[in-house]
């Protein structure tokens, strides 16, 4: 086996492992989503003002976390689609391959580190 074949095999193994991780994260988010919906349907506003305020604060945090999970779920679905069509690991901005270490850290990232830093620096200018 030559070096190129070894790199391709390593990449295939990495993608396989990342796909498993993405599917696990997806299942976890979907389970939390079902729990969130059940929690929301069982919430009642009975009790004194302190209990209601505490329940309201807890509810706001739950909604925020649920929205964050929905965003992550969308990114996971996109990454799984890219794995299926063979474009996984390619930066959406510059087209270069995203470093394996970045993919391991954030398996559903769409940008290489350089493009992410550039995007963040542009967004900081307008804040």
Automatic annotation (TrEMBL):
The keyword Metal-binding applies. It holds the Pfam family zf-dskA_traR. It comes from the Bacteria. Residues 86-120 form the Zinc finger DksA/TraR C4-type domain. A zinc finger (dksA C4-type) spans 91-115. Keywords: Metal-binding, Zinc, Zinc-finger. InterPro entries: DnaK_N (IPR037187), Znf_DskA_TraR (IPR000962), Znf_DskA_TraR_CS (IPR020458). Coiled coil: none annotated. This is TraR/DksA family transcriptional regulator.
